[in-house]
Specification:
With 233 residues, this protein is of the alpha/beta class. 38% of the residues lie in helices and 17% in strands. It has one domain: LmbE-like (Rossmann fold). A 7-stranded mixed sheet has the order 3-2-1-4-5-7-6, with helices on both faces. Helix 4 links the parallel strand 4 and strand 5.
Amino acid sequence: MRVMAFSPHPDDEINCAGTLAKYADQGHEVAIVFVTNGEVGSATMDKVQTAKVRKAEAFASAAVINARCFWMGFQDEFLYTGESVRLEILEVIRKFDPDIIICPDKDNDYHPDHISTGQLVWDVRVMTTVPNIPTLSPPCTKIPVIYYMDTVMGINFVPEIYVDVSKYWEAKAKMLACHVSQQGWMLDQYDVTHEEFVRVHSMFRGLQTGCRHAEAFRAPKFFPERTRNEGLL
């Protein structure tokens, strides 16, 4: 299968990193789309330098699991769902032609960029196979199945599906460690290390479903709907 994850900012892929690592380990093709450039995510660097650093960190994170990386470079904190942005999202999906897309929960997430990312994926889902909406890449061969990933610390999120990622915690931690620029940010803003923040969340989801580490998802309902016979791992 071909699995594509949408990360609104460089480091949001961590919310589903264990699941992506599990797919990659089983031989599936994995891609991560970094939607915004993360340019406001530093208290010590200017926007240009921050975006440059965070792009390098994003590519390093994807490389941990040999995932294909797409960098869209939209402005951090100002992602909107206009026509031109829809077409760019449509193009990047067609370029990879995924069976499954993992993205933020547009209905329950707290962050505007996360909500917009989930909404954009929702908006173009059926368009992916429509020939009369042209992009550089040809239409997808099938409408992708969408899963919404957990919100940060599970705020407002009610899981429907859990993926046991206990075996892949180390890969998830290595991906997280690539985002060096966010380490100080987390301590300054929330008085917790980035690793502690993510580990507590994954262990909390694991306790809910009977394993050491887990990631949580839900499956929005659509028409037309493909049978989810392969689903999430």
